[in-house]
Design a protein that fits this description.
The structure is a single chain. Helix content is 35%, strand content 15%. By secondary structure, it is an alpha/beta fold. The strands form three sheets. The protein has a seven-stranded parallel beta sheet with strand order 3-2-1-4-5-6-10, with helices on both faces. The protein has a two-stranded parallel sheet with strand order 7-9. α3 (75-85) runs parallel beside α4 and α5 (169-178) packs across α7 (227-238). It starts with a strand and ends with a helix.
Amino acid sequence: MRILIVGGTRFVGRAIAEAALAGDHEVTLLHRGKTMPTTLESAEHLLADRDGDGLRDALAGRTFDATVDVCAYVPRQVTELAAALDGRGGHHVYISTMSVYIDEQELGFDESGPLAQLSDPTTEDVTGETYGGLKVLCEDASVAAYGKDNVALVRPTYVIGPHDPTGRFTWWVRRVAAGGRVLAPGPHEAPMQIIDARDQGEWCVRLAESADAGPFNSVAPTPPFGFGDLLDAAVRAVGPQGTELVWVDGDWLREQGEDGQTMPLWTEGVSENVMAADPTRALNTGLSPRPLTQTVADTWVWMQDEDPGPVAGWGISPEREAELLALWDARDR
């Protein structure tokens, strides 16, 4: 197959591109040239900014069997890509997000769960408040442009694994690998789901190959699964002997000023069922999540080999963690 991937060189797109190349597909990457992994050297590279004037020229005269759009955040970008392809893009795979759903969902909800809505659907200001609603509009624009039977809408939760640039999951891998007493923000059972970028990448290629359509929850594991299960897996994978998770009440942590920024991936003590979605449709079309311990171990190997370093703004310092643990230990004395 001839596969076009728009924005396929950094993390989510990189995993899709690597999987497509491994499957002996002809891969064309349209990107700005800011990252150029050596693993993607055999792909064709079209350097263009999708928000610039060169999109039509870059794609002129080219025909593809499938297109994977990794980086559309506002519906205008979807419609402009469709216009540039002018019916020559083949089956369309749009990478959306679980943020399209509102937080209030039933445990184990499927792709029919209620979606976010924007008070101003014309905005192109991408913020924490507008991100999900804009992605809903991007999904709608994809269906309108390509037809509902020709679009797969991939809705990932937190994407993790080697080459993760976000600093969220990697903060926990680094912290657990350091060992000792690890402050773990409760509750232990708060719903949590993740997806390894490599598993999602391989599956997205299968969606393109099989021309599967419709929305898909790209999440793992199947609920019930909690934040505590995630950290327990990290300890099993990379925690030195004697590593201890010290579970601290979420309400108390919030009173101390901590949040989902200082404690990455933490839902701040709120058990949101939006992190407990049903992945059955994805599993039935080829999503095959590897064991979480393997993802943790592989991520730690990558971190040691390439030394990406912590990402500013995520996590707490060792001094602050020790202070909080001391306060927690002393609360009943």
